[in-house]
Automatic annotation (TrEMBL):
Family: Belongs to the major facilitator superfamily. Monocarboxylate porter (TC 2.A.1.13) family.
Keywords: Membrane, Transmembrane, Transmembrane helix
Membrane topology, record value: Multi-pass membrane protein
The protein's name: Major facilitator superfamily (MFS) profile domain-containing protein
Subcellular location: Membrane
Compositionally biased tracts (Basic and acidic residues): 1-10
Source species: Trichomonascus ciferrii
Region (Disordered) residue spans: 1-20
MF term (GO), any: transmembrane transporter activity
Highest taxon of source: Eukaryota
CDD domains: MFS_MCT_SLC16
């Protein structure tokens, strides 16, 4: 008798074609959970501190009077820009040294930059230490942390990346409060020294706990594999993420300033950024958990769309503390999902082969937009203004960009199939 005819369900076949690119088995845990703990802490100390820049910006505006707002905001936008620009030299470093030693180098640079920041007296010194030096150290550490979990998880990939990314949300809650209180109690210099000392045990654990599962790829030893850009879907995802990143940082950097100029109580103005980042923590874990069951690309489109819509529906008409808090919670959740789902979507759609190259090029593509976003937004706020004048333009700017980003994601999603109930 011949072999029985396959009766594979069409939807299962579609899932194999359009769902997970990797077909081999992944551990889905074990040592991977320890790797997740390490990468969570890395994101806490890297992007968590980047997310806390709004508090630093308030301090700089008060102590460098006469300096234009967009000049000061450039310090904060330099950090994520340098993080993403450093993704290109990071690939050969990781392939040559591995995850552990790459993280050691990045950690040492970050700690050194915080110590140098504690000595800064001029704006240009802050540019060098906080903007460039910290950004490069954070970039080396951040890229290592974003690549490592995807070698250990496939079925739970979005959740794994979401847990990693949620470290930056927790950092965005802890560090603004810590910085604001420490500056009041011990001054600017000792604030940054204390944070640097706190980094030492956190990053020491991370350097020991992080581990690669796959052998190093010698073909990517010196430069990323640029041929991955020939895949138009990957290129489109890079464009969508870059456009979204152009709109992401203006709200993060200026929401504290908006709260202060709205006349909010200090208890609200000082902690609105922490509230936003706390909500982002939920957005980086719960929606990715659902996305692992529905498909990451299926979940990414509506999440990016509502990130833009919430800017128009809650921040644009905001004229009270209550509505501002509602905005911070809802937009924080939505923007957190935006951060978490893009990288895990790449792992699903294109697999772990050339993943470091794809992540490197993916993050590089949004580097100039991270730099430009707050600069452009700063021009909307009149110099010397004490009210919320100009914030309407900032909100429209960011909102339109997120909606445009969501439409590109939708295009990529529909290019696989127009059927809705398919894991993509």
């Amino acid at each position: 008798m011949g072999e029985p005819e396959s009766k594979e369900c069409p939807c299962e076949q579609i899932s194999n074609d359009f769902g997970e690119k990797d077909t081999e088995e992944f551990p889905e845990g074990g040592r991977g959970w320890l790797v997740l703990a390490a990468t969570f802490l890395v994101l806490n100390t890297t992007y968590g501190m980047v997310n806390a820049f709004g508090v630093y910006q308030l301090y700089y505006l008060k102590h460098f009077t006469g300096t234009p707002t967009n000049v000061i905001s450039l310090i904060g936008s330099l950090q994520p820009a340098v993080v993403y620009f450093s993704s290109i030299p990071v690939v050969p470093v990781i392939n040559h040294l591995g995850f552990n030693y790459s993280l050691v180098i990045g950690s040492l640079i970050m700690i050194f930059s915080l110590m140098m920041l504690s000595l800064c007296k001029e704006i240009w010194q802050i540019y060098l230490s906080q903007g460039i030096l910290f950004g490069f150290g954070a970039g080396l550490s951040f890229f290592t942390a974003m690549a490592a979990p995807q070698e250990w998880f496939k079925r739970r990939r979005a959740l794994a990346v979401g847990i990693t990314a949620s470290g930056s949300s927790l950092g965005g809650v802890i560090w603004p409060i810590a910085v604001e209180r420490l500056i009041d109690q011990v001054g600017f210099g000792w604030t940054n020294r204390i944070i640097g000392f706190i980094y030492i045990p956190i990053l020491t654990f991370s350097c020991i706990a992080i581990k690669a599962r796959l052998p190093r790829d010698s073909s990517e030893k010196y430069m990323p594999n640029w041929s991955v850009l020939k895949d138009w879907r990957f290129a489109a995802m890079c464009v969508a993420n870059a456009i979204g990143m152009l709109g992401l940082f203006p709200p993060l950097f200026y929401v504290s300033t908006f709260a202060e100029r709205l006349g909010a109580r200090p208890s609200i103005a000082n902690y609105i950024l922490a509230i936003l980042n706390a909500a982002s923590l939920v957005g980086r874990i719960l929606p990715p958990y659902i996305a692992d069951k529905t498909g990451r690309l299926n979940a990414l489109f509506p999440c990016v769309l509502v990130t833009g819509v919430f800017l128009f529906t809650f921040w644009y008409p905001c004229n009270s503390e209550a509505l501002l808090v509602v905005f911070a919670v809802l937009w924080g959740m939505a923007s957190g999902t935006f951060i978490a789902l893009f990288p895990s979507s790449l792992g699903q759609l294109f697999g772990v082969k050339d993943l470091k190259s794809r992540l490197s090029i993916f993050f590089l593509s949004c580097a100039p937009f991270c730099l430009a976003g707050p600069l452009i937004a700063g021009t909307f706020i009149p110099q010397g203004a004490t009210d919320t004048t100009g914030f309407d333009k900032l909100i429209i700017f960011s909102g339109v960009l997120f909606i445009a980003s969501s439409l590109i994601v939708l295009l990529v999603r529909l290019s696989y199939t127009t059927k809705l109930k398919v894991f993509i």
